[in-house]
Amino acid sequence: MPVSVVHQTEPVTTSQPPTRHLAPLYLAGFTTAFGAHGVASVLGAETDEIGLSLLGLGAVLALYDIAEVILKPLFGALSDRIGAKPVIIGGLVAFVAASLLAIVVPTVIVLALARLGQGAAASAFSPASSAAVARIAGKQRLGRYFGRYGAWKSLGYVLGPLLGIVLVQAFDIRALYLALAVLAAVAAIWVMVSMPSLPVQPRPRYTVLDLVRQTTDRSFLIPTLVLASTTAVLGVAVGFLPLLATRLELPAVVGAAAIAVLALVSTVVQPQIGRLRDDGRIHTRTGSAAGLLVAAAALVVLAVAPNAVTLFVAAIAFGLMIGITTPLAFAHLAAATPEERMGRTMGNAELGREAGDAGGPLLVGVIAAAWTLPAALGVLAASTAGAALISWMGLRSPRRRDPQ
Description:
globular; about 0% strand; about 80% helix; 14 helices; mainly alpha; single chain
């Protein structure tokens, strides 16, 4: 029997339609995605112009992820203590400051500091925004609004590299950072004006044993594993689909087009899956397993028969996986978590996503270097299928809430 978290009726958090309060959070999600991928694509394209070596480029790009891995759980927990709204606004203001820093003196050192600052700032407002979406949406509408939130993030992943390159070619690298500063400033003001101040919930005193139980309970671990597996495939797709296109002697634009197709499919699918989840027509267990299996099958096809057609078939499959698993996993986490620790849960889940984003490409890169790229894709396919099986088996038993 398909199992999902039991949804309990709760009073609406705010008196106005929640979409009005959630819209600035969508912009915040778009901003962090735009910043992460837009800056990465521009720094990669402008490596010679700004005097970065390949090793230096890799180090600068990694600073964003390093900051997120370390700080997201901390800022998520902070939002539980002082409220999500001040953490979101503070993070967006810090993002503005980091972006303006790069405008003043765009040297390699300053760009590295700006990248680190943007990552640290995103570590604050990203998990706090997810927690705010969960609380404002209410238990009955988690899928719908997490789907929309994820769709706007996916749109940032699509438009970030494109707009970044256009801005740099039309003006210079300062134009990109100025655009990011303006976006973050608008989001901060919009959050300040439109987002309600969510009351801080009373926090029971947790022992170390309680914390261990909460972070090892399957209602947290398995959705987080689903998210990590999803971003592992996404990270590989972003890095290796263009490489496959090049090896197939296809024009460079083909690889970029495949990534754009992936992100567009994800953008379209996420709100629909969220709506189906809220209507009880799809469940975390079945949906997550199906989405991961689709991606695993696509990886096998790419490994066995790489060509222009399978490249785009795989991109569509990966987009479907992201569009299915992301809103289901986040909605499941939100439904299973008490409000007083929603920020910590979202921060820890985001940590799992970052681990997958870094681990997937690393796994494929190491195996491809030691063996072959098709073999590496096969190993990732097996890992993804294993995560699908764990999702199917581990989410059998219903959970109302995590242990408190």
